[in-house]
Design brief:
Blueprint (H helix, E strand, L loop, with lengths): L1 H12 L15 H9 L10 H33 L5 H15 L8 E2 L5 E2 L2 H19 L20 H13 L1
Antiparallel strand pairs: 1-2
Helix pairs in contact: 2-3
Amino acid sequence: MNNIMMEIAQVTCGLSKGPCKHKETWWNEDVAEAVREKNYGNWKKKATELWREYKKSRQNAERVISLAKGKKQKECASDLNDPNRQPEISLIANRIVKDRCDIMGSNCLKGVSGKVIIDEKGIKDSWKEYMEKLMSEENEWYHRISASVKQGPACCIRIDEVAAVLEKDEKT
């Protein structure tokens, strides 16, 4: 049930990772310049010389990005051993653990009577009552429909039936 509500919320509201939580990044002026040098407009014609020039500039940009990321990773790895940075590292680790935790329940819920319910059993009972009411109101069953039970293997779908449906779809 939790997954269904989360999926509906994501479809309705969208999904955001939020603002950037780290201050320092691998992106710098060298990377920006290398990416700028990749001229996207000229290579679309795929003329041999222009295409080769674009490939070289793309490879250069990839190399510069890779070097910048590697340099930043080494800096971060060296910071892990610095005793002055241990409190900050602990905070980052705790934040990562908290971000990866699933929300397993709710703290409170407003019941039918209008009172706020805070105990877990009361919340479950309130949800159960709500779902039973929802199912009985919107899906009333009058037992007026009757059908015979079909026994034996299901009928095979013939090729001419599929062809007829496809022809009908093509016309519309």
